[in-house]
Amino acid sequence: MKVAVLDINGKDTGRKVELSADVFGIEPNTHAVYLDVKQYLANQRQGTHKAKERAEISGSTRKIKKQKGTGTARAGSIKSGVFKGGGRMFGPRPRSYSFKLNKNLKRLARKSALSMKANDKAIFVLEDLSFDAPKTKSFTAVLNSLGLNDKKSLFVLGDLNNNVYLSSRNLKGTEVITNSQLSTYKIMNANSLVLFEGSLEGIETNLSK
Known about the structure:
This protein is α/β, with parallel strands linked by helices and 209 residues long.
């Protein structure tokens, strides 16, 4: 699959790059994508929720009414969850929501997500760029030239470029990462994927193992 290389003004440079069919041209496995996104979101949960249970509530331990003859249900403690102010029955406890997925499945999920973006014509290849200093205005100009100023976009660098990253940090809906930080969730969450030339080799190497 050949894709034209664009410059920072959104113009065709006349060069084309070949995207690996093993990474950008496979039959997408939607269930693998679902599992990988589910794991990513589960790992974001802190799991610090806690409700006080019966044993943790302050209150008298005396039996609140006699066992028989009242015509109502038996009750032995004011701290029971059936009474107002009582403990929560089966309430949430601190826990980890994370779960494991094997490497092959996660690799398949990322390749599936990239292939889905390629099928949707939502992948741009941009020649490598660098800014002399962090400047949001410079990055906004790149977005405008690519027609991405009102869309969610993910830019993937080959190596960390601090000036490019800082230039994009204040822009809502735009994220800049390196190829080693690429995840299925980030790919699927973006409307458009912008790959810098320097990132292609790293992406294909990481996902072709």
